[in-house]
Every structure is written in C-alpha cells, then in structure tokens.
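User: Modeling request: complex.
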Amino acid sequence: VHPEKGFFDDVIVDPLPGRAAKPRQAGLTMVIDKGLGLSETEGILLTAHAYVDYWKLPFGTPALYGRGYLSQKVALLRRFGLDVYPGGTFLEVAVLQGRVEPFLDRCREVGFTAVEVSDGTIPLDPRERRRIIREARNRGFRVVTEIGKKEAHLRLTHAQIHRAIEEDLAAGAERIIVEGRESGVAVGVYDEAGAIQEDELAKILSGVKDPATLIWEAPQKSQQEDFILRFGPNVNLGNIPPGELLALEALRRGLRGDTLKACLPKAAGEAR
Amino acid sequence: VHPEKGFFDDVIVDPLPGRAAKPRQAGLTMVIDKGLGLSETEGILLTAHAYVDYWKLPFGTPALYGRGYLSQKVALLRRFGLDVYPGGTFLEVAVLQGRVEPFLDRCREVGFTAVEVSDGTIPLDPRERRRIIREARNRGFRVVTEIGKKEAHLRLTHAQIHRAIEEDLAAGAERIIVEGRESGVAVGVYDEAGAIQEDELAKILSGVKDPATLIWEAPQKSQQEDFILRFGPNVNLGNIPPGELLALEALRRGLRGDTLKACLPKAAGEAR
Amino acid sequence: VHPEKGFFDDVIVDPLPGRAAKPRQAGLTMVIDKGLGLSETEGILLTAHAYVDYWKLPFGTPALYGRGYLSQKVALLRRFGLDVYPGGTFLEVAVLQGRVEPFLDRCREVGFTAVEVSDGTIPLDPRERRRIIREARNRGFRVVTEIGKKEAHLRLTHAQIHRAIEEDLAAGAERIIVEGRESGVAVGVYDEAGAIQEDELAKILSGVKDPATLIWEAPQKSQQEDFILRFGPNVNLGNIPPGELLALEALRRGLRGDTLKACLPKAAGEAR
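Assistant: Request completed. Predicted assembly structure:
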C-alpha cells in the first residue's frame, strides 16, 4: 500500500515543516486499539495508514478475540505495513505464570511482528528483562520496552530509568515507551491534570543519548501539542486513539490551530 | 453464534479466575449504543459478542431510526443471542402520554426482547409501575427496571430503594439497574468526581437479598475497576460504551494492570 | 435519500414539540468528523442523515486523505444531501501562504459545497475577510464564517463581534459559527468548566438581529442541553461528534431525561 497523492499537495505547504514520510525512523505514531472490528479498522487504515507505525492491541485483549478474527485483523494491519503487537501487561501475565516462551511462540503464530516488554504492574528482575528481550529478538520480533510503573506511588528514580533504557537498548530493544497509560493522568511525566512536569521530563532526557529512541505515550490532545511544540513534528507519540490519527497528523504539520499558532510571525498572533 | 477458541487459551490462564461464560446468570454486561451503524455493530459483535448480554438503544433513540434499519439492527443483535431493549426514558414518555400498551406492542414489532421500566425523570406511582412490569411480561418481554433519579436533588431514601427492588422483582423484573447515567457523575452511588460513595453502596446492599439481581451502571473505567475489585469478575455492569467491551472483559479477568495488580503476591507489587 | 418512517411515529409524540424537518432553515446540526472511514460514515448517515445538515472535515485534515478516498467520501456525504466543508483553520493556512484562490479552486475539485472563513488563529484584515467571502460565493460555495479566537487571552470585544457578524452577512455569509473548539472549554461563551457564561451570551445576542444565523459550537452534552432549554429544539448546534447525532436529536425532542424534565407539569418532577 503506497501513500496516495492528496488534493492540496501542490497548493498548501505544511506550516510546521519537516514532517517525515514513511519509511521513517522518527515521528512514529503508535495507536492503542481496544477492539475495533475489521471493517472499521480497514476504514481507518485507508484514511490514515501513512500516519501510523505501531498498532497495539492493549492489555490482554488479544486473548479475547476468536482465532480466525484475530488472524485476519493482524494480517490486515500488516498488509498496510504496520508493526502490530500485544499490550505489555499481557506479557507480564506470561512472566507471572512462567509461560514466556510459549507466549512468544503463540504471538508468532498470531502474526504479531513485535512485542512489548514492560514491568508496569509486576516486579521484574533486570536480568530476566534482558533475557526476555533476547528471547523475543531470537524469534524475529522487533522489541519495544516500556519504562514506568502504572501506580504513582511506585515511581522509579531517574537513575533506575536511565539504567533500564541503556540496558534495554543494549539487549536489543528498538524503542522505549515512556508510560502514560490510556488516561495520561498522574503517571510518567504527567501530573494529576495531565500536564507535563518539566523537571520529570528534563531528568529523563538528561540521561538519554538519543531522544528518538523514546516513544511518549500522550493520549490527550494537549499532551500531543506540548510534545510537538517542544520537539517538533517528528517526536514519537503513543497511545493515540485510532479515530485521532488525522487530527494528530494535522497537529504535527501545523495544520491545526494549536500548532499553527507557533508558526506565525511573532506579532501576528497578538494583533487583529 | 458460538464463542470461538482464542490463540492464548492453552497458554495463559486468567489472573482473576472464575469469569463466567455464556449462558451466564451473573457477570452480565450491558452496552449503551447511541447509534452505531450496521456494519460497525457487526464488527463489534464479531470481536466481542461473548462479552455482552444486554444491548440498550438508550433514551428515545429507537424513535429516530428508520423502520427498516432498526429492524435489521435488532435482528442482527438477536442473531448474536443478545437481549435488546430501548432506554427507560422512552417508556417514561409513553407513560406521560398514556400510551404504554401501544408502546409495548410496537416494541414487540421492532423485535425488542426486553424493556426497561424506570422513573428516572417522571414520577410514577408504584402500583402503576408494577402494572407496567406485568403488562410487559404478559407480552413476552424480559423486564429490567431501574432504580434512581437522574437529578441529584431527587435522591431516593434507602427504604424507598429497598421497597422498589422487592416490589419490582415480585412483579416479574429479572434485573434491577442502579442508575449511573452515561456520565457516571453525581448520580446513584457516585459522587461529583465519579467515585463510589461507600455509605451509599453499603446502604443499598444492606436491603438486597441477592446482589446478582443488580446491574451497576458504571460508564467510567475507574468505576468498573472498583466494582470488579469489590465483587469479583462476575459483577453485573452497565452503560458500557460498545468500544470498551474487550477492555472491560480484560479488566474482569485480571488481564489489565488495574485488576492484575490485585492478583499479585502481597509484596510483589511493591518491590522492583 | 428521503427520511424513512420510524416505528413509533404514530405512538409517541415529541415531548418538546416543533422540531423542524428537512429542508430546514433553523435547527441545523453540524458534525465534526476527524477521519471516519467510508463504511463507518455510511453507517452513521443511514441511521442519522435526517438529523445533520453540515459535515465538517476539521483543521487541515482534508490535506491528509488520499485523493480518491476524499472524493468518494465527499460524494457520499453529498448523496445524503449534506453540505460538506473543510475546517476554517485550513483556509487560514491558505491566507497565510497567499494561496486563497488556488485553495478555493481545489476545494471545488474535491466537491466541497461550502467553506468556512475564520480568523481563530491568524490575524485577518476585515476587508480581506470580506473579499474571501465574496471570492468563495463567486465560485458557488455556501459560506459559513466563524467568530472567535481560539486563545482565551485574545477574546474579542462585543463591538468587534457585532460588527464582524454584520459585515460577514452583508458580504454573503449564510451562517456565523460561534467558536467553541472541539473541547468546549475556556473559549467563546464557555468558562473553564465548559459552562455558558450568561453575560457573554447576552452580550453577543444583544447585537444580533436574527439569532437563527448563529451556529453555536457545543461539543459537550451539558452545553447542547443548555442551548436547547434556552432556545428550543431548533437552535443551531455545531462540533457534534458523529456518534452523538441520535443522542442530540433525542435531546432536541425531549426524548432524553435532560430535556424531558423541562416538559413535565411543574410539580411532577419533584414528587414521587
């Protein structure tokens, strides 16, 4: 599936320039899909496949689909060139039950192209974490890992975060997701109102060599806007609801008021 | 339509055990569908029919569909074995207009299998309420009733709630819905922030013989989580948005962080 | 496409009477569609086409569809008799880039039947605004304009609002949209909680000859309810999510508790 020409390509240029096209190494968008049907999934892909890279079937939802339907859905997503993977919590359950290897084998059968390794809910020994990453890589999966606890009172220290990122990448992870949950509230870099906490953000970034390895879970529009205004159109963003893909892409390109305003000559926005 | 085997059935067991399969008498899920098209409805049913029992077309929305389309939609839902019914407010309008009998007859023509009897907005004499329940039963409908006023200042006393529940069941109601509205805020057992008020919950339960007769309207994820952690995977929950069915089922089974955490060995969740 | 008869037409009358049918000059509903696929769009139209008049593809999202898919989508919407137009911000980008004429020509090629002229983000000289309205009219578009700044600190004076409304109508605009954004918070007539500010509303209305020329962006249910209770079932409302069309129509007709309560005999709502 190739991106098709748009009606306005030769009329309007993106106000926020530099948005990367596929295949791209930055500016990745990860969707959280809590159970769309096949035809709805196809409709979204036909409108927005060029604007999404990772497609997550979150939590243990892959266990809840019938075999035939899940196979078809994953095959559809792969036909559009996406990486598809189950939620990290599902692998955490496999860890708890001592079933990591059969779990990974089954993910292969389903057709998933990637897996997420996390310890948002369970405790996970760093050596075991690295071993799982390598097991997944050995089976041909791309690996994303996630940093962060789902419960606010279990917040990691920055030293822990930096060490985990380095170790994950060394073990073969491609990307590191910074936890934001489906809500974007009181978790990761977000405060109780969903606003980015400056010092949290700065401290995480202080120990990261290449910020493009990070994917920020940013389910709320204000969070997406904030990341784009800080880091530009090619920041990696995750936990995007499927129906928000075009709206997010418009934000990335300055084609929406919230980011267009940053492209105005300094005085222009203030006058009338 | 039979539930299909999943890919992970023989690899992972539900962390929160005991989730009832269909046909089930507890663990019911009721969806609120504000107007999905046929193909979208079918897509959701194909992914999630095993996880939903009642399908509500809320308020007076059944009046707003064309005849042919509504017939097809209700037939589709019945083909998947669901009970389908119009919102309680619609019957309240029929009461106000003295049209209960023709209303029930027309519901039969549509193909609805159940009706909801409520007085969330109108005043309704208890004898008239019982009469309507019996009229509906006589026409072959399953009957659910709803307890609770939509306006916070009209809150019922617990004696009123307990009497209404007993009388409804005696008159032939199968289930009693506890009002939570579409929002889950400042209504029924919820406070202004959508949190469950302990004393309200306790008082309602104090007068109820079999809590499995109650369906809790719980539109917010935090509310679903709270009910599952209190009462287990087979609590009856209602006003679930159609796109949340797999996410709710994952919650019920401990396949999502919010309920998985309750399945960890006591110390495990705290350590890293 | 003609409206089909409903099952309850001869059984129930609308509690809130007087809802206008199509073709109508008041009671218009404008949808904000952030990227629905074709089959989902068709499903919504088959259930709700009688309850929607304007269909907006907001911000610059029209730039992000493939040509073929966008053509098909707009043609589908037109087949149901709707006016279809791109978000006002998209035209603002064209203004910034000095590309208004080619932009309008391209909108014609796409099949859009209307355009929105706004200055929610950019500054726009009133003469230039009137010139764009006339350019659009000359190309056969219906024109809606929008009044209001997206940023709270740029709020217009009421004299500015009244002059802009008069000038827009004189230049050929059919309707004036009062900015409410997708959120309905801290913008236009809404305060930080999304509630209507009485004095803002009164001051806007004080200078408007025919309130039916105004379309109020009212994305939240409480806002829709408030407008219907103030101005009746035929108030013009915009930025309605596509999945809310039946719910909104039920509100307009008193077929939902929030507006049904206003139709009760005075004492009735209070008693039990």
